[in-house]
Amino acid sequence: AMDNVYQIYLKGNTAIINVRGSTDKKLSWLENFYSSMIPAKGSMFYLDAHHDYCFAKNPQAAVHCGYALAVVIMAGDALPQIEKMNKENISHFIITGHSQGGALAHMFRAYLENTAARKFSRRNEYKVYAFACPMTGNREFIDEYNADFCSQGMSFSLINPQDLVPTFPITYRDGSYVTANDLKQLLFSPDSFSFSKFAVNIAINILDRKIARSVDYFGESVSREISRDIGPLKMPAPLEKINFVKVCNIIELPPAEYPKVLKDSSILRNDSLMAIYHRDSNGHFYNQNLYKKEPAFYQHKPYNYYTSILKKYFPDDYKALPVKNSAEMMRRLEGR
Q1: d(CA 22, CA 20)
Q2: What is the model's pTM?
């Protein structure tokens, strides 16, 4: 219902559950922006029924409202799939996803442990690899998640430190909220990520108010908007604090190399300009202003996470990757 889908890959008695990240659909972005914090245990109403959920045992634990809703909806389809696989003697599960999908991977693991554990074989073993994931809960939720899964070596977050998305949602920073100016520079610089018009209007609506008050206000608007698509929706009352915390077991990946793409490739065909703009031993111009600037969300791209994994763990496969960028095409055109 929230445009979340997943794929299951099977090999022997192991299944990989791969949860898709954000799409260009309105509901998918509403899910991200529905960042009010709700109790980690409670009940939500949709599809004309109440659905009890539990992501943590600690009564002080709180989680991301939009991701909680998405997991509870997804569980209605995913849990029968796990039951079916148990009957086929599949008991080892790897849960993974990128970006929004990574956040849902963490949340789904917590849901399986605290809401649905009795449904499945005690032999079941779950391991999480979340890529580029935004934050999902408060300190109490994260402490419990870390104790249950991270400390056992059963949950990992793979993050490029230069990726901006793992710093979301809007939250406290050293006791104060991230300022509106911080976010405007991040989201709306000319080279930044291109939001749809709908998402831009939502973000501006948040930034033009005090964040503490606007997140809950915005949550009510998002809830009404979601109801138009999935039917009547009643969520638990949001908590007053917005204090997201990152999970442990973070594996840092090397940043992706942004290709040197000339702003004006006519320089390569102009002998006088070539003489002015000297090159280094790699054939790159010394004047870096000649090249396009790396977009703000370039490091978040799924393909760049893939290449970073290869670069860190499979260097031979990384070196064997075909080069697709225009800078390489320019070198080939020049016969180098």
Answers
A1: 7
A2: 0.80
